[in-house]
């Protein structure tokens, strides 16, 4: 079951108006384990925002992106090293070349919205 595996929120922020913050809170409220990653350390409802990128040993199942396509390049090799089952491209993060690269490696590239998936109960 996915609730037993981690979701990496890439682009987590302490700013409560940022979608990375909102998604982190809603994922946790839904019972999902979250690894919040951001450029700046901080805390979201008691969960630390980490500035060290996770490793494959952390058991990341899903990566949900809150980083624009132009800022994803540095993360692509690290995301691929995680070998997640899926990567969610939230609105504004779509990246056709990265999506193709994921699909070639058998990783689901889901152009969707984490908040909508959670609201519909189909995350």
Summarize the structure.
The chain has 123 residues and is an alpha/beta fold.
Could you say what the CATH topology is called?
Rossmann fold
Radius of gyration from the CA trace? 13 Å
Task: Assign the CATH architecture.
Answer: 3-Layer(aba) Sandwich
Largest sheet, in brief, is: 7 strands, mixed
How helix-rich are the residues, as a percent range? 25-40%
Number of E-state strands? 7
The total count of helices amounts to 4
Please give the domain count.
1
The CATH homology group name:
NAD(P)-binding Rossmann-like Domain
Structural class: alpha/beta
Strand order of the largest sheet: 3-4-2-1-5-6-7
Overall pLDDT metric: 95
Give the SSE order as H and E letters: EHEEEEHEHEH
Top-tier CATH class: Alpha Beta
Low-confidence stretches: none
Distance between the termini: 11 Å
**Percent of residues in beta strands:** 25-35%
Shape assignment: globular
Task: Give structural notes.
- Helices cover 28% and strands 25% of the residues.
- The protein has 123 residues and is α/β, with parallel strands linked by helices.
- It has a single domain, classed as NAD(P)-binding Rossmann-like Domain (Rossmann fold, 3-Layer(aba) Sandwich), CATH 3.40.50.720.
- The protein starts with 5 loop residues before the first strand and ends with a helix.
